[in-house]
Amino acid sequence: MSFLAPIFLAGAAAAALPIVLHLLKREPETRVRFAAVHLLKHAPVEHTEKRHLRELLLLALRIAALALLAMAFARPFLPGSAVGASGAVTVIALDTSSSLSAPGVFDRARQLAKDAIGHASAGDLVGVVTFADTAEIAARPGTDRVLATDAIDHAAVGFGATRYRAALSAAALGIGDRPGTIVVVTDLQENGWDAGDRVSVSERTKIAVVDVGAPPPNLAVVGIRAQADRVVATVHNSGDRAREARVRLSIDDRPSGETSASVGPNQSADVALALPQRGEVAAVAVDDPTGIQADNVRYLVIGGRTKPSVLVVTGSGDLSREAFYVQQALGAGSTPTTGYQPVSATGAQVSTTSGDALAAHAAVVVLSTRGLERHGREALAAYVRGGGGVIVAAGPDIDAEVIADVLGGTSALQMVPPSDARRESRTLAPADVRHPIFQPFAGNAGSLGLVTFRQAAKVGGSGCQPLARFTTGDAALVECPAGDGRALVIASDLDNRWNDFPLHATFVPFLHEMVRYVATARAHAAEYLVADAPAGVRGAPGIAMLSGGTGGAPSRKIAINVDPRESDATRMSAEDFQSAVTHLKETADAKSRVQAREQEDRQHLWQFLLAAMVLTLAGEGVLASRTA
Amino acid sequence: MPWAAADRPFLDPAVIARLGTLELKARTIVEGFLTGLHRSPFKGFSVEFAEYRQYMPGDDLSTIDWKVYARSDRYYVKKFEEETNLECHLLMDVSGSMAYGSHHGMSKFEYGACLAASLGYLMNRQRDSVGLTAFDEDVVAMLPASSRPGHLRALLVTLERLRTAHRTNVAKPLHQLADMMTKRGLVVLISDLLDDPAEIIRGLKHFQFRGIDVIVFHVLDPDEIDFPFERATRFEDLETSEEVMAVPGAVRDHYVKQMGDLIERYRRELGASGIDYQLLNTKHPLELALLSYLSTRARAL
Fold first, then answer.
1. What is the rounded distance in angstroms from the CA atom of residue B293 to the CA atom of residue B118?
2. Which of these ranges, A34-48, A348-362, A500-514, B232-246, has the smallest mean pLDDT?
3. Is ipTM over 0.85?
4. Which CATH superfamily is domain A309-518 in?
5. Is the pLDDT of residue A361 over 90?
6. CB A283: neighbour CB atoms within 10 A?
7. For residue A68, which phi and psi values (nearest 5 degrees)?
8. What's the pLDDT score for residue A8?
């Protein structure tokens, strides 16, 4: 038996207390040579031997009670009694992304996963994690391998995209601080790692990759858009040979057209199909019985906006001239559905825009307050109070009073424009890297420090919270709540005039994160990837109805499609996979300590010892009352 | 004026204990005792004239005093005190249990020996024959009864030599002595009676059957009566060495009741048999025992 807190065993020395007290307080035994002893023999008294035995038993019980108490505090555990003999864990991470939906591929993956269970060391606990965009623990680590095998049998390929980060994180969580092995059963799609992705696991956790093999030659519809009177579908051929793609168009679930196109090896081709006058929903499918099945069809809501819109308020309304960098950054996205759709407006136009029209935008970026009349300010203020988000770049075209009007009195925003004479280079540093805006930069927060701000306004207010500061100590980014919404005020412009931020790689993700942070919870796009499907919508390709929620907005149709990156057959090697994993070193002490704590937590022997102590004290009480 | 025991300045046993020899102790007790008896009904109990009484038909003719008849022409008979040829046997228990005594006073054995010596002294002084038998489980010493003046010294020497040692068996020597006694007389038993009461009473009744008067002096230490111990104590039997660990507070009531029952049984059963029973607490003066003896003797004569 070992102890988690052996220092408390010193308390067992208290067990000697009754003995010491007895010895110190001991009085010489009183003996009387008496005549009428036979009259005492029948008295209700104990005879010497019996009493001596009871006293010894009493002393033993008292010592035992103190010793048990000390042992309970020392938190004992049995080192060898871990659930698994070796204490190690093997977690099978099974890829269920849509790239494995080609006929027979997932069955092969399942068989490989079962083989991995069979190859796990005899004493290991075995668990199963299935993963695509997210990971799920299908079977917690345990000794019952039948359960693990059963979990694999019940696993099914889905429509998600491969995300190794989620898989390894979940598997590492299952292993905990024990030694273990993560067996990743996957087709090793290169897209499974996002750019810059890294996963940290314990030094004692090994990563083993089981390759399911390359997917078969595949034809996929990776894009679909409506252009005037036709629907243009992008068909990708991931095979080594050119293939004739047979493309069919359905409008509102009714066949509407069909055509063929030749697609070269590892090439994409746009296929145009005539769009009828009437119709809401289009679906383009390609015949590919041997390839990945999930990407054979793609859906489109005709007339629907594929990206959330962001209203950019400038002086003239010409985004390419006054907000070029913001326009480009908002529109950037790795897929046709990611990123934002910038919508231009002047201050005067905002003044004439209705509240409903404003509410259709995910966020409003105010780069100029020129022409923003009273009605426009009130409309913006109502937009924010109603839960909308506003980003203000405190550049040269911003009037502080107008912004203060928009944000209302609660924020008490103060904005002091920089004096031309004062030009001081400064950089930006987040006040808390755990803030949602800066979280994506957490691993590389220093990159934000490369941006040089030559001029900056002084922003702040009693109701505003600084999220980032310049190296001068002034606030660089403040968040001002207003009603149900919020505003972000950055103390410089976003057009490469007062700083070089737009020229840095961090500009796009920074702007995206700001918009995402202030954007309302209302969905604004008409097309979503399976992984990004709004709450309440099933994560499977197809057309879904999205309710307007409590704000009174009308319900609308949205298209859910698989991530087109899953159709990219580019693979990586097992070594490349391993290179994205960082093994954290742990000291031997920490390891053993954690192991001991886990075992102690599992066994809870201290509870039994306390119960035994209570029983001992009860016995002592009974015996003591009899002895007295 | 009748005397009262409570009013008498009796000698404290603790004082008696400090006196040198047993003879001195006995003399001090008896002389002091007799000096205090101013109007003792026992005055002049030697062989001497007592009174005249008018002749009544049926009186022995030999008792008529003819000289008085000659002078007064009336028949008078002479009354004499009866001859005091009383044979008294002192039975002294010398078993181990008699060795018990409180720290401040006399042991039961010393108290009993002192009592025996005093009785012997008193008897010898009034010319009664007195003998001594010491016993534990057997008779260990025996001095035949005699009224010779030098017999007292022999009795005192015998008492001085006695030592307590063995277990008690009171009944056995009682029966032996009862069988041995040929004359009527008086038996004085001095013992703590810590033995089988039924056997002891049967032994004493044996004397009664033989027409012998019996006085029982039940000698007990105050500790044995009141059980005043406080701390948990290991009690070792003086005779058997058997040990009993007891908390006095817990057993006192039981013990006192047992002892009270024992005393009451002796008092009741011996009294019913016409045997004088006198409980003697060793912290009380010995003269009380002498008074008890004398009253019994008077009844016996």
1. 11
2. A34-48
3. no
4. Class I glutamine amidotransferase (GATase) domain (3.40.50.880)
5. no
6. 25
7. -65, -40
8. 82
Which spans in A74-198 are helix H?
105-119, 145-154, 164-175
Residue A340 pLDDT grade (very low, low, confident, very high; cuts 50, 70, 90): confident
Containing A126, the helix (H) or strand (E) segment is: strand A125-131
Q: Are strands B139-146 and A76-77 parallel, antiparallel or unpaired?
A: unpaired
> Could you tell me which chain A residue has the CA closest to the CA of B241?
A33
Task: Judge: domain A219-303, CATH 3.40.50.150.
Answer: no
Confidence at residue A552, expressed as pLDDT on a 0 to 100 scale: 45
Domains of chain B: 5-39+83-300 (3.40.50.410), 49-80 (no CATH)
Best residue in B108, B245, B259 for a mutation probing chain A (most A CBs within 10 Å) = B245
Task: Quote the minimal CA–CA distance from B220 to chain A in Å.
Answer: 10
DSSP 8-state assignment for residue A473: S
Nearest to A377 by CA among A397, A340, A342, A348: A348
Reading the block at residue A588, the tokens are: 């031997």
Contact criterion met (CB < 8 Å) for A48 and B245: yes
The mean per-residue pLDDT over the stretch A84-105 comes to 84
Give the integer Cα–Cα distance in Å for A95 and A101. 11
Name residues 185-204 of chain B within 8 A of A (Cβ): 192, 194
**B170 with B139: CB under 8 angstroms?**
no
Q: Is A284 exposed, middle or buried (0-12, 13-18, 19+ CB in 10 A)?
A: buried
Q: Which residues does A589 contact at the CB level (< 8 Å), separation at least 6?
A: none
Element (H, E) at A52: helix A48-73
- Residue B69, classed as helix, strand or coil, is helix
- Both tokens assigned to B124: 């010898």
Beta strands in B82-199 (DSSP E): 87-93, 129-135, 139-146, 186-191
- Counting every residue written for chain B, the total comes to 301
Q: Do B233 and A32 touch (CB under 8 A)?
A: yes
Predicted model pTM? 0.45
Which DSSP state fits A453?
B
CB contact under 8 A, A36 and B259: yes
